[in-house]
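COMPLEX REQUEST
Ligand: adenosine-5'-diphosphate
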Amino acid sequence: MSETHAFQAEVQQVLRLVIHSLYSNKEIFLRELVSNASDALDKLRFEGIRAPELLAGDPELRIEIEVDEEGKTLTLRDNGIGMSREEVVENIGTIARSGTRRFLESLSGDERKDAQLIGQFGVGFYSAFIVAREVELRTRRAGADDRAGVAWRSAGEGEYSIEDIEKPTRGTEIVLHLKDEEAEFLSDWRLRALVHKYSEHIAFPIRMKGRAEEGAEAAFETVNQASALWTRPKSELSDEDYQGFYKHIAHSDGEALAWAHNKVEGNQSYTSLLYIPAKAPFDLFGGGRDERHGLKLYVKRVHIMDAAEQLLPGYLRFVRGVVDSDDLPLNVSRELLQENRLTQQIRSAVIKRVLDLIERMAEEQPEKFKSFWSEFGQCIKEGLTEDYANREKLAKLLRFASTASEGAEPTVSFKDYLGRMRPNQTQVYYITAESHLAARHSPHLEAFRAKGVEVLLAFDRIDEWALSYLHEFDGKPVVSVAKGDIDLSQIPDAEGQSAASGGELPEGLADRIKSALGERIKNVRGSTRLTESAAVLVVDAHELALHTQRLLRQAGQGVGGGQPTLELNPGHALTAKMAAEADEARFADLATLVYEQAVLAEGGQLEDPSGFVRRINRLLVA
Ligand code: ADP
Ligand code: MG
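STATUS: Structure written out below.
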């Protein structure tokens, strides 16, 4: 019985997008269809562990590509798991996958940008319509009756038909009726070149017809390597091989930045091949992780599942690759993986390998590392909050802008910092702020400048949160300059600088200011932080920096945390002027202005801007 169905609206949207935006890169349809065939073979091999009869009669798993030049069709065939009628409707007619939904949500409507996104995403089955005016799919689920075959057909224009057929072989056959202008995909050498380019490292044989011999039909021959790349010795593999496999496994047109390929033998044996992509995927910080394209778990060369969640911590979600274990049971389930001792060992080793790979990059390939840091630095910072065991290793990878470097580029490591510490300096100092300039010009840095003490400038949103998990580096406390007490008195002054005037405020001044400012501040005290500015706001050591408090408030989150303390520069002329001011009204104006200056310098907003202007004017004309 043949029925006609309309595509889900979202499918139509994807179809239109794929066809229009990918036209310039249309050849990728072959990669996508071969990758689906390979997935189908993987699934059959996996189900075959429990039900070997599924493979009976046709145990050699393979993909075939065949051309009919006269009929202008290109056919891809696999003897994999196949689909039932329900599965065809479900998998090909609707978009149930959360990944695709997220993809749609992330589209901007800007065609050029979207085309790049699509390329990153892996476009799947619908890419067939880039080159085909009509697509026919015939499939039968492995183990099902011959009469349980299904034929699906569509011109990619809003509807498809579906019909029950008889199909004696299991698996899926896809016939592309090529558009007239796509005849290049009938060319044998063109297709072979595409297989080499995109599908060389599919672990199953891809077979195409060879030259016809006199009087006989041409026989199929294998046109790809057809071996699991990670099982081959490193010495046999070129960078090109690794990059090719990366594209396959990451469903990506992009390059890998670096990789680590290791065979472990010992109390358990496994091979891992781990990649760091050159570019972050579009949704790295969006709707969570696309686990389907993360880390694939194999057991004895059989693809068991995508196990990124079991084998990688969240902050390493950008890693792609393969782990192939000889010791895990073939029937291992997700639940079992979670608590399995072998898995936990593999997981720790995988994390270590990735971090070592990055560390080596930082030491030996600074340019590469720079690009890594700009793509994935945030993830490493997240790692500080998640991965206690590797905190020291992660801290070594951190990079910041700094008062000892120019510009906003994060180039300074803790190690660099330690090498430049001043005599008697015992702590590592950083400042967090909303922007590079807010950090670099903060009054909090004045005393540090006077002492020649370097301060790391941290202005990523995540910085304050991440650094709050890092209490020390190499035994040195890591401390925010804007919080708590800072004592630089043991450190000699820098050449040509006069130190912050430390110490006490004139008798009674703090109390007068406190009563003038009321609830706005917690306390008033003399500052050891300042050389030029009159005043600065400080929070307690355990509190969030003021700019972070603002951020949270803007996001509608309540922030605990008390009022800031106002620190006043005892050596500043304004301090002396306030102390000498007998008129209480004028004193209140001065005190309020000093407080307001501190708020502005810190990047905050005034509660009462026009009051501020009035106060200034009163003093200007006085
Ligand atoms: P993805 O491969 O990322 O899941 P696709 O659009 O490529 O997305 O394919 C959609 C679904 O259609 C697959 O997940 C699979 O369930 C099904 N499918 C596609 N091709 C085949 C095939 N050759 N054999 C069996 N199932 C297939
Ligand atoms: Mg696919």
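REMARKS: Residues 32, 35-36, 124 surround magnesium ion (ligand 2) (CB under 6 Å). The chain has four domains: 3-225, 230-377, 398-497, 500-622.
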